[in-house]
Amino acid sequence: MTIQRVMVIGAGQMGGGIAQVCAQAGYDVLLNDIKEESYEKGLAVISKNLSRNVEKGRMSEDEKTGVLGRITKSLDLQDAKNADIVIEAAVENMEVKRSIFAKLDEIAPDHAILASNTSSLPITEIAAATNRPEKVIGMHFMNPVPVMKLVEIIRGLATDNDVYEAVETMTKKLSKVPVEVNDFPGFVANRILMPMINEAIYTVYEGVATKEAIDEVMKLGMNHPMGPLQLADFIGLDTCLYIMETLHEGFGDSKYRPCPLLRKYVKAGWLGKKTGRGFYQY
Ligand code: CAA
Ligand code: NAD
Q1: pLDDT per residue as tens digits for the range 86-121
Q2: Cβ neighbours of residue 96 closer than 8 Å, sequence gap 6 or more
Q3: Is the peptide bond before 185 cis (omega within 30 degrees of 0)?
Q4: Which residue owns the Cα nearest ligand 1 atom 35?
């Protein structure tokens, strides 16, 4: 199974990062978003990241131009007709993802793999929106994509072995480390990380300590590169809430209930770094 043409759906912080690392690895990339301004914002971040690589002597100006030249704008899902693999990184919402996958199934060539960068949603349920569940797979990158080494690869119930192997090979070509995990809510990364973040939010909510103190405890006490509240802002509070809801609903266990303060911030539009305000102001 040869992969050369990659389509990425969603030009937000994850989709932009995925497009960047794919183009750096030599793939031709179609970067799609429903909003032109989100595409432009995503491309500007990619360009800034590449310029930093040039300044640091890790890449030449010509290589930067080559990487940017491999990324093409797409505002229409019909562009999937030329893709060998589509990696979806739109919002963490099952209805949105199922609708995108149902459309992609009609548009993409028969051989195309349909992958989702979902943080927590069951791959099997996303795959069931298509007539090719054997070609649907989870490819979960970590944020920030250009820096973080891990990609969790998640097989749905029907995912073919060749599809798994093609995605594993592609992940290695992106200089990432694939780790196979099973299709359970939150997979491994967010089943462990997100309850810690949610607990940190409860700790602010209950007045146990200030947000700064909580972050300091986890940074200095546990050697985490970012405190959990800073990390929540970095991930996006909407994404954190969606993930907690998936864990809560998926396991039916009250230990995963999202903190009311997290809900309140999301309702206020305080989504973290991407909107300029979350637990902190940016
Ligand atoms: N995009 C691209 N590159 C970035 C970046 C970004 N957003 N942020 C930082 N970098 C690069 C910097 O350019 C720098 O590179 P060089 O040293 O090679 O120039 C390098 O990363 C280190 O950056 P800084 O020195 O500025 O800052 P730092 O040492 O504090 O590192 C960090 C920044 C890598 C983000 C670090 O704070 C960190 O690892 N934080 C935790 C990240 C994390 O936990 N990610 C997982 C989130 S959960 C997830 O992704 C799954 C999910 O489904 C929600
Ligand atoms: P984001 O809000 O930064 O970006 C989402 C982008 O998708 C936006 O630009 C939006 O315009 C676009 N979009 C929405 N609906 C679309 C559609 N129907 N078609 C095309 N584009 C559409 O979100 P993000 O943080 O990049 O997260 C994207 C996905 O990646 C989510 O599923 C999330 O759970 C997952 N993820 C996020 C992180 C993280 O740390 N933020 C880490 C790993 C995985």
Answers
A1: 999 999 999 999 999 999 999 999 999 999 999 999
A2: 90
A3: no
A4: 144
Residues 6+ apart with CB under 8 A from 280: 211, 229, 230, 233
Q: Concatenated DSSP letters for 33-78?
A: -SSHHHHHHHHHHHHHHHHHHHHTTSS-HHHHHHHHHTEEEE--GG
pTM exceeds 0.85 for this model: yes
Task: Kindly give the distance from the C-alpha atom of residue 6 to the centroid of ligand 2, in angstroms, as a whole number.
Answer: 17
Separation between Cα atoms, residue 179 and residue 192, nearest integer Å: 15
Torsion of CA 167, 118, 17, 70, to 10 degrees: 50
CA-closest candidate to residue 27, choices 175, 177, 159: 175
> Cα(98) to centroid of ligand 1, in Å?
30
246-277: pLDDT as tens digits: 999 999 999 999 999 999 999 999 999 999 99
Helices (H), the chain: 13-24, 36-55, 61-69, 94-107, 123-127, 161-173, 189-205, 211-222, 228-235, 237-251, 260-267
Which secondary-structure segment (H or E) carries 6?
A: strand 5-9
Q: What is the DSSP code (8-state) at residue 26?
A: T
Q: Indicate if ligand 1 lies below 6 Å from the C-beta of 53.
A: no
Active site residues per annotation: 119, 140, 152, 190
The full length of the chain comes to 282
Q: Which atom of ligand 2 is nearest to the CA of 15?
A: 26
Q: How sure is the predictor about 1, in pLDDT bands with cuts at 50, 70 and 90?
A: confident
SS3 109: coil
- The number of helix segments (H) and strand segments (E) in the chain equals 11, 8
Domains of the chain: 5-181 (3.40.50.720), 190-275 (1.10.1040.10)
> Which amino acid belongs to residue 258?
P
**What is the identity of the amino acid at 29?**
V
**Position 273: which residue type?**
K
